[in-house]
């Protein structure tokens, strides 16, 4: 997982540990499987290559299942979130989801927002005879948020829990103006690993236990729970 996206996964106060929703899910999943878990923080766009190279066994990183990603990974649902649009305080440009044409929108490199959501909205702009959206692709979530606050980007499009958390913590400097496209995110599992069924069963056990709701509540995302550990429930 990457470590730039509170409350999902971010650096702890010691600057070494990784804390948040996803680390807690990973540890609880390890307990259900009876294995030790080592959490590794890397750049989001390095996760799939790292899995493919055998450096890591699983990705628990708010990754949306897509047809393209499912060519190399299987996914087990563990949470759901939407795509949010955030702007700087007061929304000086009057931004909305349907008025992003011609504007610069900051997105995380390798994210579903970069690969799918911004291109979808941009294509709609072009079809309507308007200017395309200009994506500003940055290496971590916090960089996208800072670009929005500083005015280098006109808006930020990221996972809704991340931007809603930033809104709470920014003393009003970040303003979430829309949330759409709520869908499941999954645990990424290399197809040749043999781990799909063990992880699916363990995740369903966790979902059915009180621990799952306790973890979600701890990080203020109780509304993001899923009812089942569905497989390859893609977002395309």
Task: Show the helix and strand layout.
Layout (H helix, E strand, L loop, with lengths): L3 E2 L3 E3 L6 E2 L1 H13 L13 H6 L6 E5 L9 E16 L15 E5 L3 H16 L6 E5 L2 H10 L4 E5 H10 L4 E17 L5 H12 L2 H9 L18
Parallel strand pairs: 6-7, 6-8
Antiparallel strand pairs: 1-2, 2-3, 4-9, 5-8, 5-9
Helix pairs in contact: 1-6, 1-7
Please give a quick description of this structure:
This protein is an alpha+beta fold and 236 residues long. 32% of the residues lie in helices and 25% in strands. It has 7 helices and 9 strands.
CATH C-level class of the largest domain is Alpha Beta
User: Quick one: overall form?
Assistant: globular
The percentage of residues in β strands lies in 25-35%
Rg for CA atoms: 18 Å
First-residue to last-residue Cα separation: 22 Å
Question: What is the succession of H and E elements?
Answer: EEEHHEEEHEHEHEHH
Known CATH architecture of the largest domain: 3-Layer(aba) Sandwich
- Secondary structure class reads alpha+beta
Contiguous low-pLDDT stretches (5 residues minimum) are: none
Biggest sheet character: 6 strands, mixed
């Amino acid at each position: 997982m990457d470590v730039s996206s509170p409350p999902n996964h971010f650096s702890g106060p010691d600057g070494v540990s990784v804390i948040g929703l996803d680390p807690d899910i990973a540890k609880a999943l390890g307990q259900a499987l009876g294995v030790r878990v080592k959490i590794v923080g890397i750049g989001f766009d390095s996760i799939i290559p790292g899995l493919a190279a055998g450096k890591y066994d699983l990705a628990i990183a708010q990754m949306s299942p897509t047809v393209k990603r499912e060519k190399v990974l299987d996914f087990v649902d563990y949470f759901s979130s939407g795509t949010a649009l955030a702007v700087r305080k007061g929304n000086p440009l009057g931004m909305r989801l349907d008025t992003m044409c011609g504007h610069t929108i900051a997105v995380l490199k390798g994210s579903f927002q970069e690969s799918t959501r911004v291109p979808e909205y941009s294509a709609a702009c072009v079809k309507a005879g308007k200017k395309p959206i200009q994506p500003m692709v940055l290496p971590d979530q916090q960089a996208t948020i800072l670009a929005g606050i500083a005015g280098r980007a006109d808006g930020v499009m990221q996972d809704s829990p991340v931007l809603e958390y930033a809104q709470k913590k920014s003393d009003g400097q970040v303003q979430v103006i829309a949330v759409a496209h709520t869908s499941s995110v999954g645990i990424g599992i290399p197809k040749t690993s043999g781990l799909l069924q063990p992880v699916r069963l363990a995740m369903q056990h966790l979902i059915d236990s009180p621990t799952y709701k306790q973890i979600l509540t701890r990080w203020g995302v109780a509304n993001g729970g899923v009812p089942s550990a569905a497989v390859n429930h893609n977002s395309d």
